[in-house]
Records
---
Amino acid sequence: MPAHPESVPVNALLAVEGTPLEKQEPVKVWDMIRMIATARIVMPKTMIRLSAGRVRFTEAEQTLCFMSGANSIFTGDKLLTTPNNKFNTDQQMFETLGLVPKAASFKVDLAADSPVNEAKECCGSNHAHA
């Protein structure tokens, strides 16, 4: 059996003005949940990262994503070219859900004057890790 990647991002498009997909309809949360659940079934030992577009989902919708198999997020003020959830908001969500963040698996300094973005992986009673 082939090895699974260490981490797989699941993205919900954030339409950006001036790009070919600027008028694209946003991905619905139930489609995200199905994608995450499918990824979890296909890659049971892989970190499934709830990634781009998470900022559009409520805490309850993100909770459903975690319950369906997501166990990793990017956290920080900005990720690439689109906004990201606030670090403190993510920490509050983790506390509410009883999830314990693991140490970041890596840090990337995108520019000397930019904030460092981190990948955060969570673990809790409903999440298994490789």
Note: The chain has one domain: 7-16+24-123.
---
Amino acid sequence: MKAPPFAYVRPATLDDVLAELSGGDGKVLAGGQSLVPVLAMRLGRPATLVDINSVAELHGFDAVAGALRIGAAVRQRAVERAAEARAVPLIGMAMPFVGHRELRSRGTVVGSLAHADPAAELPAVAACLDATIEVAGPAGRRRLPASEFFAGAMTTGAGPEDVVVAVEFPAARPGEGFGFAEIARRHGDFALAGVATMVRVGGDGAVETARLTGFGISDRPVTRDVTPFIGEPDLRGPMAELAAEIVDTAGDAHGSTGYRRRLFGVLAARELATALSRARREVPV
């Protein structure tokens, strides 16, 4: 199918981007790996595509104050290959599952967050780490934690006249370990169920915090504090109970709700155990 008619602009400054979005009938174009298929299927009909690739400040990618800041125009492949990204191990674990290499060469990290597909990997990473998402709009800039940013399927805290400027992922600290896994029909397909985990231990190896985010299981990434469960000798039981609570995606041709619950429970138990093992290896001597 062909996209419906639209105007195309390529502003050079963020102020010009916001001016073009004024009125709410424009759509931001960065990598286009989510937007272009939506247009081709005529699921969206924006009057104007606002290409942000000429805005220099949106290409920023660096470590600042214990966090990795990624601008809205930074490609996923650039982050995947960058030494700076090692400060956030969960990004490196998730990135190979994001589509295919060719798509990651054009797609942007921030674009994936702004698209907010409930089965996407990077929103789950942001939710698990409670990353900070910076949004610019007519009223100025604001910073939203990931826990408040994802409002539902393809729905975020950014309005139609806003642009997501950057995301800041907190850098890993000593004593933290991470896990990531998903199940899909084929590599590169959207996940039937997936989990991202983070466990932090103290100097004695005792668990201080454990977080788990599930994706592909509801209308947004679902995060839970699972610290009380980490002391269990077998996590499969508690995670099966958690799956019954939070997995509510309707069954389809790829798998029933019950099947997704079983996938989530097994992955969650395994990746929490993996994160705990890695955290204890990272405890400073």
Note: The chain has three domains: 7-51, 56-170, 176-281.
